[in-house]
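Lab meeting, item 3. Inverse folding demo.
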């Protein structure tokens, strides 16, 4: 199963079209957009997507990043790592080697790119498993969205011709299950004022999400944890009534 490409809040139709064109160069076929700035469909995207009209026509649009990830199990994002968040960081070749191993093991994976000007927000970075950094010259370290997609696409495509045997990997829950778990857990923590210091809540919550996602639980394990949390919470309420 080839990885899907997700553009989060893309700002320019030309960049969307250029990414679609790069996808055809390297054998990728499914493009998802999260809240594109100029709406969808976009004439400029079609004009820029030489040879990739089928990808533009098949674009799926989502209102939120969480919805776009609902059927994905492992998320790779090209972004700088927030200093206060512990995330696995890899260069493109290493990351695409890991992704190829996962896809051959049956995992659904996604390649994520943030908005051109600002990149992904911390809340979105917290929802990703692995961050990809592209080494560049310090004289000009910024890459265009389409340029970044070419580099990542090339490294993924190059790996497809290498004899990497499929491994029997454990089942991993799709993000739809994780989203439900995080919503439940965040509600409980809010009710008991777990964060205590209000201005630290955001980073503490991002680190909690990162900690759980690192565990790579199966769908059954997520359901079991949700059931345990619910039982503890209900017993607590009985004892406090």
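The presenter then showed the designed sequence:
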């Amino acid at each position: 199963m080839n990885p899907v490409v997700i553009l989060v809040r893309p700002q320019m139709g030309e960049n969307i079209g250029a990414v679609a064109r790069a996808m055809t160069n390297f054998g990728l076929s499914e493009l998802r957009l999260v809240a594109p700035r100029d709406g969808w469909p976009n004439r400029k995207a079609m004009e820029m997507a030489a040879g990739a009209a089928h990808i533009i026509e098949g674009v799926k649009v989502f209102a939120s990043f969480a919805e776009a990830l609902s059927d994905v199990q492992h998320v790779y994002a090209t972004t700088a790592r927030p200093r206060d968040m512990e995330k696995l960081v890899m260069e493109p070749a290493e990351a695409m080697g890991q992704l190829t191993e996962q896809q051959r093991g049956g995992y659904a994976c996604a390649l994520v790119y943030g908005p051109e000007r600002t990149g992904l927000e911390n809340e979105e970075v917290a929802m990703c498993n692995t961050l990809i950094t592209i080494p560049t010259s310090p004289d000009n370290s910024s890459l265009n969205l389409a340029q970044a997609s070419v580099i990542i696409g090339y490294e993924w495509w190059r790996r497809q011709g290498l004899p990497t045997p499929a491994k029997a990997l454990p089942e991993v829950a799709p993000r739809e299950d994780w989203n439900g778990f995080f919503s439940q857990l965040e509600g409980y923590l809010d009710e008991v004022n777990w964060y205590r210091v209000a201005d630290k809540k955001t980073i503490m919550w991002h680190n909690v999400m990162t900690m759980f996602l690192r565990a790579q639980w199966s769908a059954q394990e997520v359901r079991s944890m949700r059931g345990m949390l619910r039982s503890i919470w209900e017993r607590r309420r009985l004892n406090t009534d």
